[in-house]
Amino acid sequence: MSTSVTNPIKQRLKKTILWYTLISAFFFVGSRIYEHFSFGETSAFMHYLFLIPLIGGSLLVALQLVVKGLSRITLNLWNSALATATAGALYRGIVNLSGRSTTLDQPYYYVAGIFLALALISIFFVRSVWVEKTKLST
Q1: 109-133 burial by CB neighbour count: b if 16+ within 10 A, else e?
Q2: Which of 12, 13, 86, 98 has the fewest Cβ atoms surrounding its Cβ within 10 A?
């Protein structure tokens, strides 16, 4: 058997930073391309779509730095909240760029709010087993 010398908390933090940066960049470029071919129609939802994963990912990174041993369920709920809010904004942006209006995106934000509330509640009740080891002897 071999033991790993990598720190899983730092690996998770690096992975979070990488993925949210890539997702934000993808939505930034994708929304600009989509708006370019929209025949002059604009949508604030599409234009600022990249901010949802960018801000949400930044808050998650800050949360991971403050709360050591953040649980997997908290991360899953947080990611679900951001994915749902992003999907709602993307849906609204596509509908607005097609020249119509809709309010059918509101349930996305309600569900995202519920996921976010559950993620924040789970911080206080569930901890990960990956907690950094403290100095055992002085």
Answers
A1: eebbeebbebbeebbeeeebeeeee
A2: 98
Residue 58 pLDDT more than 90?
Answer: yes
Model confidence pTM above 0.85: no
* Domain containing residue 25: 8-125
Would you state the pLDDT for residue 96?
86
Is 41 inside a domain boundary? yes
CA 86 → CA 2, 91, 113, 121, distances in Å?
Answer: 41, 8, 12, 22
- Quick one: CA dihedral 49, 91, 31, 63, positive or negative? positive
In a domain, 1, yes or no: no
Domain count, the chain: 1
